[in-house]
Specification:
Largest interface: A-B, 24 and 24 residues
Number of strands of chain A: 11
Distance between the termini of chain B: 36 Å
Order of helices and strands of chain A: EEEEEEEEEEE
Strand content of chain B: over 45%
Largest sheet of chain A: 7 strands, mixed
Strand content of chain A: over 45%
Radius of gyration of chain A: 14 Å
Number of helices of chain B: 0
Number of strands of chain B: 10
Structural class of chain A: mainly beta
Shape of chain A: globular
Order of helices and strands of chain B: EEEEEEEEEE
Oligomer: heterodimer
Low-confidence stretches of chain B: none
Largest sheet of chain B: 7 strands, mixed
Number of helices of chain A: 0
Helix content of chain A: under 10%
Structural class of chain B: mainly beta
């Protein structure tokens, strides 16, 4: 079945960087875009950006433009999200999610990875 | 950027009742780009509805979506115990702009 499996929880100090992985299986990896979304404790969903695993082109939300880098490795069907200059407000669960196929007139995120908790604390 | 506003913030109902959740966009949007998700505690969001009115695979028919322009609705016809969760609407505005509503918490009365 289609599945996205993310790396485990991380604890980082302010100013550090974190890199979260998202491994895809059950479908043709290069045919679907992958989105990253985060959720601070008790809060809503915040979109961070998108990567096309085929070719690696990216587009980031303006808020994260200067601090986020998304990459892909087609040999392992894995995408990565790296966030730098971490601060306490970056404490959140980070999700990857597969986008709808480009041929569709619709847009949705399905499925989602299980989430990766990143805690930023001194 | 399109702002999505959901109401109410919390909805208290009993199993068997009908739930009506609202999502309003700050400007008119294409129905094709409106989706609804369900999130239970400790879990990732799950796609319920796409294109404003199309149920995702495996979603029970008690869930339905409707609306156009700026006003969209998610309806759960008869609440089951497993339906009590948080619901988010989403607008896909392109590769630089995806926005979510703040969520509606559906709780057992």
């Amino acid at each position: 079945q289609v599945q996205l499996v993310q790396s485990g929880a991380e604890v980082k100090k302010p100013g550090a960087s974190v890199k979260v992985s998202c491994k895809a299986s059950g479908y043709t990896f290069s045919n679907y875009l992958i989105h990253w979304v985060r959720q601070a404790p008790g809060q809503g969903l915040e979109w961070m950006g998108i990567i096309n695993p085929s070719g690696g082109s990216t587009s980031y939300a303006q808020k994260f433009q200067s601090r986020v880098t998304m990459t892909s490795d087609t040999s392992t069907n894995t995408v990565y999200m790296e966030l730098t200059s971490l601060r306490s407000e970056d404490t959140a669960v980070y999700y990857c999610a597969r986008g709808a196929p480009g041929s569709s007139i619709y847009r949705w995120f399905d499925p989602w990875g299980q989430g990766t908790l990143v805690t930023v604390s001194s | 950027e399109v702002v999505m506003t959901q109401s109410p913030g919390t909805l208290s109902l009993s199993p068997g009742e009908r739930a009506t959740l609202s999502c309003r966009a700050s400007q008119s949007i294409s129905s094709n780009l409106l989706a609804w998700y369900q999130q239970k505690p400790g879990q990732a969001p799950r796609l319920l509805i796409y294109g404003a009115a199309n149920r995702a695979t495996g979603i029970p028919d008690r869930f339905s979506g409707s609306g156009s322009g700026t006003d969209f609705t998610l309806t759960i016809s008869r609440l089951e115990p497993e339906d009590f969760a948080v619901y988010f609407c989403q607008h896909y505005g392109g590769s630089r702009s995806v926005t979510f509503g703040q969520g509606t918490r559906l709780e057992i009365k």
